[in-house]
Amino acid sequence: MLGEIGRPADRDALYVDVAHAAAAAGDAVLALRVSARRGLSRFLGSGLLEGDEARLSEAAEALPDSVDRGIAMYALGLLNKSRGRLPEAEAAFQRADAQFVASGATGRHGSALDQLASVAGLAGDLHRAQRRFREAANVCREAGRLANAEISEVNALLAQVELGAIDGVAERLARTARLLDADGGPVPAARIRVHLATIHYALGDLPAARALADRAAATLGGIGMRAGVVEARWAAAEFAIAAGDGDAAQAHIHAGREAARELASPAKLLRFDGLEALQALARGQEDRAAELARRAVAQSATAAPTDTGTGALPPLLEALALGIAPSIVAPLVTAYLATSSDDEAAHRVAGAVLQGAEASSEADADELE
């Protein structure tokens, strides 16, 4: 029940009380169970604190086979995924899933399948990801977790859109919105709205994307769920930049950066540096854009290749290559290409540099004439 109560800070206080009671009673198993659930709650809410990872690892190894042992493994999977350690994340989610299945925790089984699908998508296997997301949706629906089922369905739609297949997406979105209003709690509802916003944006409906992202950011910010705030603010800022709304974009960037700083996440801060560079470029502040881009590229050199923060770099560098003198962008692109393992993104960036150089040469020729 504790995982369903109130704001993350309120839940954490309750976990502390239970942990103290367990210590007073000398109940080591209960203390480990609390560590597992508290660690997961904090990761999903305000972020892990010092010592949480060690306690989760201890719970994953020392607890008897149970849902709580699976929760500890699941939390470690989330942690590894956030750090770009995909093989370790997959192994942790598989171990967690085995615990959930053996314990008859069908809803958590669906959540583990959803995370395994997410790992497959991050590894570039979108077809496998789509299949697993749909399997997760079916399991969650059977368990009565309708909001979780909708999240998995939307994740499957995102994989479908990335594969270039958009038939039926608009109709599915309408059904998701209706079910969301009827059955979604505030947190899953807000997080699914971020996904929905992304799909609306991919389909060219910028006003709908902005409304959904803004609403999600306000909800998650009010609850205090920093990890969700980062994703919502990043999406809202991206859409505001696309709409030419500089003031709104800057407000979202500022709020998102604060949340990322509180999570002590350099990779998430990197994403906002990239967005701010695009915003500066849109305002004609080329020196500021280049400065932010240099910082982003330097930070990306130490990030894991699959870290979500590095995903902001290719579109940033493409935009800079087309909007700033090639002599400024070339060293940044060279540094990015030296560390990037994303061949497709590297190809797009290199192509943008060539296109920008050609445009610059044409402009110089026009001036000579």
List the helices and strands and how they pair.
Elements: H1 8-25, H2 28-44, H3 52-62, H4 67-82, H5 86-103, H6 106-122, H7 126-142, H8 146-162, H9 169-183, H10 186-202, H11 206-223, H12 226-242, H13 246-262, H14 266-282, H15 286-300, H16 313-323, H17 326-339, H18 343-368
Helix pairs in contact: 1-2, 2-3, 2-4, 3-4, 4-5, 5-6, 6-7, 6-8, 7-8, 8-9, 8-10, 9-10, 10-11, 10-12, 11-12, 12-13, 12-14, 13-14, 14-15, 14-16, 15-16, 15-17, 16-17, 16-18, 17-18
Structure description:
- The chain has 18 helices and no strands.
- By secondary structure, the protein is an all-alpha fold.
- Helix 6 (106-122) packs parallel to helix 8, helix 10 (186-202) packs antiparallel against helix 11 (206-223) and helix 12 (226-242) runs parallel beside helix 14 (266-282).
- The longest helix has 26 residues, at 343-368.
- The radius of gyration is 22 Å and the shape is globular.
- Mean pLDDT is 78; it is low at 1-6, 304-310 and 359-369.
Q: Tally the beta strands.
A: 0
Strand content: under 5%
Mean pLDDT reading:
78
- Proportion of helical residues: over 70%
Structural class by helix and strand composition: mainly alpha
Major sheet attributes: none
How do the helices and strands follow one another from N- to C-terminus?
HHHHHHHHHHHHHHHHHH
Uncertain segments are 1-6, 304-310, 359-369
Number of helices: 18
What would the principal axes of the Cα set say about the shape?
A: globular
CA gyration radius, whole angstroms: 22 Å
Distance between the ends? 75 Å
